[in-house]
Amino acid sequence: MFRCLACLLSMCLGLLPAGCARAEGAGAYPSRPVTLVVPWPAGGATDISMRILAELAGRELGQPIVVENRPGAGGTLVGGLLAAARPDGYTIGQLPLTVYRFPHQQKTAWQPLRDIQPVLMISGYTFGIVVPADSPWRSLRDLIAWGRAHPGQLTVGSTGIGTTAHLAMEDVLGRSGVRYLHVPYHGTADQMLAVANGSLMAGVNSTGFAPFVEAGKLRLLAVFSAQRSARWPEVPTVAELGFADAVHNSPYGIGVPRGTDAAIVRRLHDAFRAAMQQPRHLAELARYDQQLTYLGTAQYEAFLRQAWETERTFAERAGTARAKEQL
Q1: Mean pLDDT, the chain, as a whole number?
Q2: CATH number of the CATH domain containing 68
């Protein structure tokens, strides 16, 4: 009885002991709203789909899931926030692949394998190269030819330094010997508007560009997927245009602080797995040519451990890797 009273008093004071947290995790979780960190600006494609998913998963949990946007640093701010949060299930985050890329390139106070517990994988993106609808470039070859003829004058946007969009762009233009000006943005919406209004000559992004392409404001030159998109079957893949292995996607899922009670992880997994299959969420993914790529907790963790090694190899090849002993 006294232990329960102590726990209740500590909760009121914001000083819940670890033992009490475990006790709640085994039973009453969640007893209050859950915060979902989305590391992209409000109003973008990922933000909208994650808000829908949060609403649906909140219904499964019986408590609302409140989205907190923390854009910047290529979507990696979520890594530090999860590492610093209490492992009680009340702070969760969307995990872009950049969380497992940046520590190889820049010093961080957190390490994802050590500090983040994966819950489940949800989906991935189709990345593509877009230009304004009135651009004289009708193909990727046109863009590359112009870039070669005008060194340093081609402006290309991405969702941030070190993001998958940036690396995909560098993969193609770097191999082509094109010197260009990279313009990083915090998210999709601002970048696509800049391309559509001609402030940028080209952009590389996930399929947040879809509404702009379908509205006739952007022209899609090529996609970075392994096969042509069923939505735009006339658009070639970058690989088929001569850039072997230039296949880039960025699977994402949900993560929590490492040390979160296994029962809470299972509860979140089950809620999000049910929510991600709801027609409303599937319809939103379809708007951006996305499909479900579900992996359970153990499989998702194995995938991310392999991704950690793959990103290390990529950083070493690009000459941006930090020393291993610094990780």
Answers
A1: 89
A2: 3.40.190.150
